[in-house]
């Protein structure tokens, strides 16, 4: 049973619903900017299990508390994917990235997490002088942490060249929470030594996968070429990630036919095969001579594209229903049906 309760003079909003499949009822609470918070199929007094509701007005993540166990989980998460192209000017790129976060927050209201593309602050070769300075990371942290606090949002910064100590750099992505705290970083682990490219000449590989806990749940991060390694996405999900973010600088390619179809298939298959939301954020433009085609997308666990920006610079905002994702995993339990003993490497 769905019950809506709202006081027009208050920002408090409460939703209660029953779901026998979870062995009890859940009480959901959130802050709404208006009393009209959701729209979709179903109405008060009607069983709306399975209904996919969409939020209209901004708020922090909707949380649910199980009536019997007291367990708390987040029901919906609003995500913004920022599609932009880097120039050779680090300062200009950083200002533009921060500006796009500001613009999206002002246009869309409360966003739970932003994600920017790989090398959105400049490619290693184009910002070579900057990468020799440890202040590069601090400048990004300062700018993005201030935006996180200002807009009450988590931010996945997109990657930048971080000095590795051997003349190369790491391809590093930072994670910042709503309070502006540095949560952690991911250094790309699988480098693009393929198709006449050799990323390892200028980039050192990281040694740990990217798993992070934010206020709405556990996330995973993988970068660009790593979409071609299904083991990464699967391992992230097995370690508890419910949303996988993929900052990328994925090009058309010249040695072979255009790779836009690969991008679409790889991002969707990562979502479908793992029953996890994938947020794939690609650059658009020609920052290093190669054409980066964008096509960023927020893809739910069923492979549906929830949001995608138009060609060029822009922001895609979509809402991911994690309770819907959890129900999918219960009804299609491929993760628990795995038989790892049959998959040894030899």
How would you describe this structure to a colleague?
- The protein has 346 residues and is α+β, with helices and mostly antiparallel strands.
- It has six helices and 21 strands.
- The protein has helices at 90-108, 128-131, 135-151, 230-238, 260-274, 322-331, and strands at residues 3-6, 12-19, 24-31, 38-39, 54-55, 62-66, 72-83, 113-115, 154-163, 169-176, 182-187, 203-204, 210-214, 217-221, 243-248, 277-282, 284-285, 292-293, 297-299, 305-307, 314-321.
- The strands form four sheets. Strands 1, 2, 3, 6, 7, 8, 9, 10, 11, 12 and 21 form an eleven-stranded mixed β-sheet that branches. A six-stranded mixed β-sheet has the order 13-14-15-16-19-20, covered by helices on one side.
- Strand 13 and strand 14 form a beta hairpin.
- Helix 1 (90-108) runs parallel beside helix 3 (135-151).
- The radius of gyration is 21 Å and the shape is globular.
- 40% of the residues are buried.
